[in-house]
Amino acid sequence: MLGRALQLPIELTASVARGAGRRMGDLALAGLDAVLASRVAEEAVDRALASRLADHTVDRLIDQERLIDETVTRLIESAELWVLVDSIAKSPAVTEAISRQSVGFADQVAGGVRERTRRLDTRLEGAARRVARRPPRPSSESP
Amino acid sequence: MTPKLVYEGLATRAIAFAVDAAVINVVAFAVAGIVALVLSVLSVPNEVEVVLLGVAGLAFFLWTTGYFATFWSTTGQTPGDRLMRIRVCSADRGEPIGFGRSVLRLVYLTLAAIPLLLGFAPILFDDRRRGLHDMLAGTVVVSAPEEPVAVSPAGPSRVRTPPG
User: Fold this and answer.
1) pLDDT grade, residue A127 (50/70/90)?
2) How far apart are CA B131 and CA B115, in angstroms?
3) Do B81 and B143 meet the contact criterion of CB atoms below 8 Å apart?
4) DSSP string spanning B104-158?
5) 3-state DSSP call for residue A87?
């Protein structure tokens, strides 16, 4: 009974809160549109771009780019990097991966050759046996 | 249970033999080239050159015989056979043949090649795909599937299985 009595005011409050939230959001967006459409916003942006702050920010960004370039150049020129690259290249994991890939490719090629020669064997044998009028060979047997 | 043997045919065996011939000749040419370069800077009398040619011929014969006999009598597979996944084994027990029998098989193989390769023709007709040299040496050439790989913490390694 008490639950049902409380349910109605709670639902009413929630509904009012939802409506108020939507209304406030709409008002905020309308306010933002008004500000952006005004000459004040345009003037503010123009002034900001004309200020020393914008120049300073651009200069900072260019300086940072130069710093990154310089860091990369120094890194490439440093002997330590090549020692690191050498040690990675010579590491068992990398060499094993490369050799496994090479062996895998060679094995794949050899597998293709094997398959074709076995097909050729069957054809040659079939043709020879037909010419000699002999029955087909049994496929396999124990020694 | 005795595993079923799959006998290998003429084309597969010919490719394996061609690979072995390439290996033998590449090594022989490399050694001959080195020896020829060394001799080119030395003034060797003609008589000695004749003797050296004889020695080179004998060395080539021994190298070829040793190559086939060693591989056939140990693993039953030359490098060419390994590439084509085939192996030579005794016809009765399916095991690798001995060194002496391997040398004999090579002699029979040479004999089979002399009459315009006609000694290899029985491979096409015989139920066990045997050439003349196989019949004379009591051998067969069978399929040798890849051995299973056992993965251990130290890395992959081949599991040795008894032949046959």
Assistant:
1) very high
2) 13
3) no
4) HHHHHHHHHHTTTTGGGTHHHHSTT---HHHHHHTEEEEE-PPPPEEEETTEEEE
5) helix
| pTM of the model as a whole | 0.63
What residues in A contact B90, CB-CB < 8 Å? 143
CA A33, CA A50: separation in Å to the nearest integer?
24
**In the numeric block, which tokens belong to residue B10?**
């003429």
Angle CA(B44)–CA(B49)–CA(B55) in degrees, nearest 5? 130
* Chain A residues within an 8 Å CB radius of B124: 124-125, 128-129
Structure tokens at B43: 């003034």
- The mean pLDDT of A10-19, rounded to a whole number, is 83
Contact between residue B31 and residue B64 where contact means Cβ atoms under 8 Å apart: no
Mutate to test the interface with B, among A96, A105, A108, A118 (most CBs of B within 10 A): A118
Give the model's confidence band at B161: pLDDT under 50 very low, under 70 low, under 90 confident, else very high.
very low
